[in-house]
Specification:
heterodimer, A: 400 residues, mainly alpha, two-stranded antiparallel sheet, 14 helices, B: alpha+beta, three-stranded mixed sheet
Amino acid sequence: MASITFREVEGSSLKYWLLFGGLGLLVLLGALAWNHMHHHGHVVTGMDNQIVWGLPHVFAVFLIVAASGALNVASIASVFNKPMYKPLAPLSAILALALMLGGLLVLVLDLGRSDRLIVAMTHFNFKSMFTWNVFLYSGFFALVGVYLWTMLDRNVKTYSKAAGTAAFIWRLALTTGTGSLFGFLVARELYGTAMLAPMFIIMSFAYGLAIYLMVLAAAYAWTGRPLGDIVMQRLRTLLAVFVAAVLYFVVVQHLTSLYFTKFHAVEAFILRDGGIITTLFWVGQILIGCVIPLVILLTGMGKSRTWIMIACALVILGGLFQMYVTIIGAQAWPLDLFPGLVEKSSYFDGEIHSYAPSTPEFFLGLGGVAIALLVTTFAVKVLRLLPESLDDATVAKLEH
Amino acid sequence: MNDTKQNREAMTQPESQERRRFIGAATATAAGLAIAPGIMLIEVAHGRPEDQAASSAVRWGMLVDATKCATGCNDCVSACSTENGWTPVAESAHPKQAPQWIRKLELEDPLTQMQTNLPMMCQHCAEPPCVDVCPTGASFKRADGIVLVNRHTCIGCRYCMMACPYKARSLVHESLNDTQKPDVPRGIGCVESCTFCVQKVDRGDGTTACVEACAAAGHNALLFGDMNDPESEISRRLREIPTKQVRADLNLNLGVRYHGI
């Protein structure tokens, strides 16, 4: 097997520092947004006692789900012994860590009492899925960190497969935990199903890979390193499979709900009468997030790198829409305390709840994305994460 | 003289002893009469000293008779707001973000046009989903069945609000004004809900502000008491009239039972 040379990116060009500065600015805006929300309370957000989890959760959950998915490229290399993926693995691991960091920061900075984070670290209720997630997240950092170490340090390279396998199993548990944050909720009709755990796993495959592909292509294009079509085409096919699987899960979930009369009203709300939620579902989640990317990836268009990038961007955007529909849509539908009766109260019972995200919420969420990319940008400068060349000849040698 | 004295003593001693006995008995009776209701009241109300833990021998509960709940009457809500120091939603600049510990729910059957009024608040479940999901254990159920939020360990994650099937909880979205009550701690960024007026219960009042207000208005639609005590008024009524739990399908064993729904 041919050897691959990993090298840090030089990171001294104006372009690098512009990227670094731009992302830094977004992180700063995110920090200011948090400060504003923390100082005034959630009254300055679009969230209320009806929509209790808003846009920050959309970003946070998306990033956490994508984080575990970004690790997949590395898992394919070490767990499933595909040599072609080996040179792609270090970036996969660092991206997983960075996305997880971004997602978690958004999550904790959106707490009503983000100053009490230490309480969340010291008081545990083990019946809570949230508590389990705290351990799953910390374990993820530890395992992926060790895994990355085994990839970067020759002395511990022999442990790479073991560390990779442990990280892979852990990430499956982690996304199960993330899906179960919603799956374990009895109150709301669109939650409370085991379906959410595997669906979140398959979504993580798609979102994580889409982000990985975009970061990989950008890193190679901007540093002038060769990136051959073998890598891109292989990952393109993989992405198509993942996106199709996401669509399959979404269809099965809604078909099942449509079969039960008690879910007819809420399904009609999401699929037909929900206004912005319905639009986001059909146009955002289904069309932009699944159908168009599938058309691009499965037809001749997928041969073009530009089109692959467009497909990736659409999958990411569709993923955010999907999270919006899953998190906001489910809350917008009122709780049915008395099935069959019309309910009215000063607390907005029986009404469809509207939600308009505020600017601070948007920038807090965006800050999480920015910090993930900033960490990655910095990491590729200081660590040997990227192969000098991923041209077709180099990659072809790996497989023989 | 001695004779006279002895005679007098002989004459007065039994009388004096009898008088003493009488006074003693009278005092004891009077004291008994004075203290007994207090002791009985404590017994009934289960008021308890601060250093004594809540007892699982008691299960506080409420009976809501929706047939007596008056249309347009909001007295229970106002009383709760006054007792617990939360701003009435009508006075709030941000109604959608304003906390509401209790609300009047108007129900109508679209087919029959049958209308029902009832107050909705924390149902003080025996198996509360909010307690299950709380990551820090800030949401908890006391031994006597009252579901509360620990103001010091609530991190404001709102997971309990996602989990509650009764929309009973509110997040404090903004800094609180000075209407706060010393025995009802509240705080920005924390989640709160009906406490069954735990401060009154622990004082030994044996009732809640909403129940008192409903009685004062003459409706008597609300009854509060110990559901574990078969002799309590609430237990007696629960035995006599048919009641339901809201979302009984969830099998959460609620502390609030409704008649007439």
